[in-house]
Amino acid sequence: MNLLPALTAVAGILLVASAAGWLAARALGLDRPAFAAERLVWGVALGVLLLAGVVPACFAVGLRPGWIPFLAGAAGLALLGRAFSARGGETPEAIGSRPPKAPRARPVSVFLDALLVLGVGVYALRCLTEPMWATDFLAIWGGKGKAIFGAGGLPAWLHRMPELGFTHPEYPLGLPFLYASFAFLLGYWDDHATALLFPVFQGATLLFLAAWLRRRGAPRPVPLAAAAALSLVEPLYRAFTTGMGDVPLSFFLLLLGASLVDALDGEPGAVRRLTVAALGAAALKNEGLLAAAAAAVIALAARRTAKAVRWRATAAALVPALSVRALQRLRMGPLPLRDFDFRLLFAPELPIRIGFDLRAIALEALVPGAFGLVLLAMLFGAGRRSIPAARLATFAAILLSAYALLPAFAVLGPDWLVRTAFVRTSVALAPLAATAVVLRLAPLFAESVSGDGSSGSG
Amino acid sequence: MKTRRFVALAAYALLVLVLLLAGGPRPTEVRRRVRLLAHDSSRDLASRRLDGSSAAFDRRFFFFLESARRRLPPDAAGVAVFEPDPQMAAHVLALYHFAPRPVLLAPREEDIPPGWILAVYGNGRPEGWREIARVSDGALYARLP
User: What is the C-alpha to C-alpha distance for residues A123 and A48, in angstroms, rounded to an integer?
Assistant: First the structure.
């Protein structure tokens, strides 16, 4: 089939799934006008989870995935939203004031809009130029999806052929199930049109970033500026990562971080959002499970938050993430992490390995990215302290520290893992970092508005 | 406060500049991508992959894979691929292309499971196997009974 009709079909499937997700998002406390844009994004997240989830659900009951199970799942999701609708509340920091509009906002916004259009347009072009082609897409994410679609189930070789260990049987199957779902609905495997998912993930990330920050009181051009800059982060949004787990994970990590902050602020529906985000992150990559654990640690350590709220947030982060992994283990048996040997934790050479690891990170990431990292640090330092920003930054910092230490346990040596994965996985934290930075900077620009006496209604 | 705002604005402007210079779109890249998209969008999926990056290491090998896939017996349990220069890119592409069947690249004779087909790229002719189909730049073989 030609590309255009296939793209239209993929877009249609995404639209139907997202519409069901949007209806279900009523259960996430997003039915107030202030949450309208966020609800759209959660609709996409739920729609994607529906698409991915319908495949193993069908396999479990012996059905072939297709339109009837998908539409039944969509209807079920919409009904869940109706049955368990949760009324949203005010965001604590935004109570009493609408986000102000900064002075001279219009020309600045036009410029930022142009940057955003450039970033989004170029990424879409990079994603859609050719069928997805990255080695990890072919060997892992797309390869498994194609095998699941072709076999109409989980072929045993996916986890029983040691010679094919490079396909990483131990990785979560969320993304392969998502690809397979599109193929079951289209009736054929199309690894070109399905790449449309990636600009959609980028768009959803940017929209969520801007909408969530606006709701948190950031003056209008500031979230737009963050979204525009983020759209241009080429190490994340590039042709090579199309088809791999990093871009979808970066989306779910942002949802996870933001809903964690909302949940700890006691927002109605936020605990449910945290559950959805943790589920999505853990279903995508092993880092998602790590993220859920990091969120749980932050929730437990949160000061000025009621104990019951902290425990609810902890459970919301951990239970879905652990459930996803338990289901996979139940189906496929214990599958050790192929790239790592954690017995090295007790080995005498561990300090030497950590030294090699940090040296490799310095050479591969810190030196080439030094200027950009200094600028990011300046932006962070120029802002003001805020508890939500601190929570997001801590969340990102825990994950970054884990990514930095993990190569010390790499079977093929720290250099190898740093070279092949460190930048790619770390840069998936960019949306979280951008959000934390804007939360710190927002008061500066809000003050400039009230100082000039030109505060608008936003 | 003004100093902080100034620092933030300056850092932001420089950061955007760095992002644009380091990874932003180059006119040549955009032109190349638009040209490829325009050329390929009305072609079938296999032709688009043939033109794409995953087949760039050896486009004739992709031709061989596609040709072999079309001639593969439906009951083939897996495929052992032999090519003169076994490399990871070939293994990954073959595994993806023959999915849902598993693929091994240049395995030892005794490691080839029963019911598997040999796909030989080039002129090699394995002993103890009978040719079942000629394909582009190679042939398919089944184990002799």
Answer: 20
